[in-house]
Amino acid sequence: MNDRVLDFLSDIYFAPIKDLLENDTCTDIYIRGSDLVLTREKGIIRRVEGRQFDSEKKLESAVNIMARKLGARLDEFSPMLDARFESGERINIVIPPVSRRPVVTIRKFINRYFSAKDLLAAGMLDQAGIDMLAFFTRLKKRIIISGAPNSGKTTMLNLICQHIGEEQGMVVSDQRQLKLLPDE
């Protein structure tokens, strides 16, 4: 099947969530079977009413099409998929027999990255915190970044990377979200 056919079919099968995929304020979409769709917007998870798939079989067809678009296999012998779109979004799919019904999580990424000035202005970090990160980074200390989804881990990592000088080496990461920005 060529990409145009797959794009057309995925538009049809994913019609109940197509506008959620295009919504920039929606960072996560959770599909729990054909009758439950949840989103995360501004850190709040809520049920989205009226976003049902016609049946579990149609949802299974939709996720199978998505798997094919990603060049992956999804069937009873390979019932879990963890993949990344070229644009960086992640998709996780689990189907029977691992789960009772298809379960899909789509993690979208915001295209806006916050600078130290943005974080100061929003009151998310004070100057002492920024100075401390810079100090420990320049001393080559290990810094662990941990937290829940959408808690600011990548934002913090981006901020830390701004303080790594060329003489200190390089940053190796598989994080497509990581943006190495110059100091302001």
Structural account:
With 184 residues, this protein is of the alpha+beta class. It folds into two domains: 3-107, Beta-Lactamase (2-Layer Sandwich); 116-168, no CATH class. It is 32% helix and 17% strand. It is built from six helices and six strands, in the order ααβββαβββααα. It has helices at 3-13, 18-22, 56-69, 116-122, 127-138, 153-161, and strands at 26-32, 37-41, 44-47, 80-84, 90-94, 103-107. The chain has a six-stranded antiparallel β-sheet with strand order 3-2-1-6-5-4. A hairpin with a 5-residue loop joins β4 (80-84) and β5 (90-94). α1 packs antiparallel against α3. The radius of gyration is 20 Å and the shape is elongated. The N and C termini lie far apart (48 Å).
Shape: elongated
| Main pleated-sheet profile | 6 strands, antiparallel
The secondary-structure element order is HHEEEHEEEHHH
N- and C-termini, Cα separation: 48 Å
The main sheet orders its strands as: 3-2-1-6-5-4
How much is the radius of gyration in Å? 20 Å
Q: What level of helicity do the residues show?
A: 25-40%
Query: What's the CATH first level of the largest domain?
Result: Alpha Beta
**Individual helix count:** 6
Work out the count of structural domains: 2
Strand content: 15-25%
The name of the CATH topology of the largest domain is Beta-Lactamase
Query: Quick check: average pLDDT?
Result: 81
In total, how many beta strands?
6
Oligomer: single chain
Give the class from helix and strand content and strand pairing: alpha+beta
The assigned CATH architecture of the largest domain is 2-Layer Sandwich
Low-confidence stretches: none
